[in-house]
Amino acid sequence: MSGAVRRFRRLLHPPRTLRWRLFLILLTGLVLAHGLSFGALFLERTSAAKAMMLGTLERDVATSVALLDRLPPEERGRWLAVLERRTYRYELGPGLPGVPDLGSRGAEIARAINGGAGPGFPVVVETIQGNRPHLQAHVTLRDGSPVTIDVTPALMPLAAWLPLLLAAQLLLLALCTWLAVRQAIRPLTRFANAAETLDPGGKAARLEEDGPSEVAHAATAFNAMRDRIAHYLEERVRILAAISHDLQTPITRMTLRVEMAEDSPEKERLLRDLSQIERLVREGVAYARSAHGDVETPARIDVGSFVESLAFDYQDMGKPVTIRGLSGAVLITRPHALRRILTNLIDNALKFAGEAEITVTRDNGGRIGIVVRDTGPGIPEHQLTAVLQPFYRLEQSRNRDSGGTGLGLAIAHQLALAIGGSLTLRNRRTGGLCAEVTLG
Fold it and tell me: Can you tell me where the transmembrane regions are (predicted)?
C-alpha cells in the first residue's frame, strides 16, 4: 500500500524538466480553451436545435390538429402516417396511461403544442414510463374524439466524423505545443552544452549568434565571456612565466654565493631551501600552463610503446617501475602532455610506495585506460577528489620534503582534461592507490 501511495504522490508532483513543464502548461491551456470553445459551440447548437424542434412541433401540430379536426372520423387513420415525423407521431385514442410531466422539458413541449393547437384544443402532457421513457400529449378534437401525440424528444445526431475531427485537432494542438516548446528550449540546451564543454584555451566552435534577437544576444554575451576567460588565463600564464623568469636570476645568484661559502650545516639548509623555492616556481608555472595543454600539436602514437619507453627510462635510472598488460592501441593525442601526466603519477607512486606498476587497457567502446598502481598507504576516501586541487597536500605539515608542493596531481588532472581525457583516483582493496587516465 505504501508503495502505491508513493507512486501516486510522484504522479502528483510536477515534472522536473522545464521542457515538460512548459509543454504541460501550454497544452493544458490550449486544450481547456479548445474544450470551452467546443462546449460553447455545442451548447449553442443544442439550443438552436431545441428551438427549431419546438418551432417545428408548434407549426406541425397546428396544421395536423386542424386537419384531423376537419376530416371525417373514418378518414383520420389514413393520414396518421403522412403526419408522422422523426420525433413525434399521432395516434387516435387516449394513448397509454402516464403521470403528469412537471419538468421544464414537458412544460416547453406543452407550451409549443398549446401554442400550435390553439385555445380550442386543450392539451395535457404526461410522461410514459417504461424501457423507453417518452412523452404523450393528449388533445380533444371538437367532436370529442381523443388524439394522442407521442413525442420522443431527440436532437439531431452528431456527425460520425466530428469525434475524429476533435481528436485530430487535439493531436495538432499537442504537436504545435511540442514544436513551440522545443524551439524555446533548444537555445537553453545549446548554452548548457557549451557551458559544460567550456574550454577557453581550446579551439572548440563558438556559439552561433543567430536566431531570435534574445537568443542571439545571449550567444554573443556567452562568446564574449569565453573570450574574456581565455584572455585572463593567458594573462595568468604570462604573469607567472614573467615571475619565474625574474626569480631565476636572483635564485641562481644566491645559489652561487651559497656554494662559494664554507661547508657548514647552514650552507646545506640554504641550498635545500633555494632548491625548494626553484622547484615551487617551476611547478606553479607548469600548473598555470597546464590549462593550455592543447597548444601542443596532436600526434598519432602507439600507447603500448609509448608507456613502455617511459617505463624503460625509469628503469635505466634504477627506479622500480614495472609494466603489465600492454595493449597495442593507437591513439591521436598530445604526447608531451601525456608524458607529463604519467610522469607525475609515477613520481607520486615512487615517492609514497617506492615502486610503480603500469597497465594499459582498452574497453569495448574503444576508450584507452592507462593505470598506475602502487602499494603505498593510499588516500582517505573523503580526500580522493580534494587531492586533485592545487596546493592540497595530504600531509598538513609545511615540510616540502615530505609533503611536496601539492601540485603534482593537480597538474596531471588539469592536463588530462586539456587533452580530452580524465583522471580518476581510487584505493586498491589490497592496499595502495590506483590512478587511471582514460583517453579516447
Answer: 20-43, 160-181
